[in-house]
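User: For a benchmark we're assembling, each entry needs the component sequences followed by a predicted structure for the full assembly. Here are entry 17's components. Please fill in the structure.
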Amino acid sequence: MKIVVIGTGYVGLVTGTCFAESGNDVTCVDINQEKIARLNQGQIPIYEPGLTELVKRNAEAGRLKFTTDVADCVPEARCVFLAVGTPMGDDGSANLSGIWAAADSVGPHLAEDSIVICKSTVPVGTNRQVYERLKQSLGREVNVASNPEFLKEGCAIQDFTKPDRVVVGVMSEEVGDVLEELYKPFLRTEHPFLVMGLESAEMTKYVANCMLATKISFINEMANLCENVGADVNEVRKGIGHDQRIGFQFLFPGVGYGGSCFPKDVKALIHTATQHGMQPGLLQSVDDVNNRQKQVLFRKLDRYFQGDLKGKTIAVWGLAFKPRTDDIREAPSLTLIDELLEAGAKVQAHDPVASDNVAAIYGDRIQIIEQQYDALTGADALAICTEWNEYRTPDFDLIKQRLTSPAIFDGRNLFDPEKMMRRGFHYSGIGLTQPQ
Ligand code: NAD
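Assistant: Structure for entry 17:
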């Protein structure tokens, strides 16, 4: 099938590449000329495990192309996916200017039987507006479908090619059939292809992300309470997780959720609910708890240094909002760095892949260090924001040698507090009891 994907970011590039891998003829389009030029030279603009090889193989096979010119590829395409960004607007609502621009750019070139499929996360009603907009400008019926994406950065290819489910919102059965055919290679293990109305599909994406964000804020609030009452959240997790109604997934306390999806999607659903005269108290609390949780490491550091961080040097391990990605959008590490700089501390930071993105924000206001142990040299404490694998079993002797005082503030509970005490560290995690 001939496919065009508009927007070549985390979602668009993975979508286009995986459809090419299953034998389709795919063209990925972006307005960012530099991005397209780099892709045409075989350079992948994002870090996503396994993606480079897959792009290379499909580009070499002639199944995957990159362009800035919609007129070149859209007329031939049966499916035109919109995968542009829908960032947060000033009032918390989703900014849909990318969607309108993308729809307007493809509209005049659409073939009679083509389907415009929105993969971007968009508020309820957006797909119907895309349909009305295209119908009005073309003066004829147009097929529009919603196909929200559930992939996780860092695991995107696996998630796309082996999805738990595929959700499509359609206005006609035939469109559902075309999309089912397209997704068939990825659903061979009987995972469901769920066809529903446009609005339900749009809502499904927000409800999924808000549920996951709720779990994170819930366990973070419980972890903070555990710490205050002398309970250990790791023990409590086990105590609740074995209850099959609760389970273990997504109940890891930490420094709050970040990334390009949860923060903006929670805010967008709050905005939608408010617009409909509701008071989304639960979602508002999820957002508030998360904003407070992003400050948890700073509060601990500030307490440890008795309110005087001025002139102190803090090493920060982990800048990406989560491991296996270079995405730093809304990353908790940025909140910590901002607060440390505000308090007059110096920051020496390390991340396996996200350093350049962070350097682009802070310039010479912080030091980005290439080697993880070098970031510790002369630092007064280490703060861990992201649970990259290479931080999980570090050389503790080397850490002690490099730090001026052996203090670790661990936002991901990577280590055992008792062992850390025996190793001679001041160790503070999230919701853990201090060994006596
Ligand atoms: P992104 O910012 O990484 O990429 C968006 C791309 O679209 C950019 O390259 C941009 O240049 C391009 N673009 C913008 N307007 C365009 C236009 N008019 N024509 C052509 N290209 C245009 O965004 P992303 O992270 O891939 O997210 C895309 C959508 O998917 C968002 O709605 C997001 O909420 C949703 N989503 C993201 C993830 C994720 O993990 N990143 C997961 C599921 C869903």
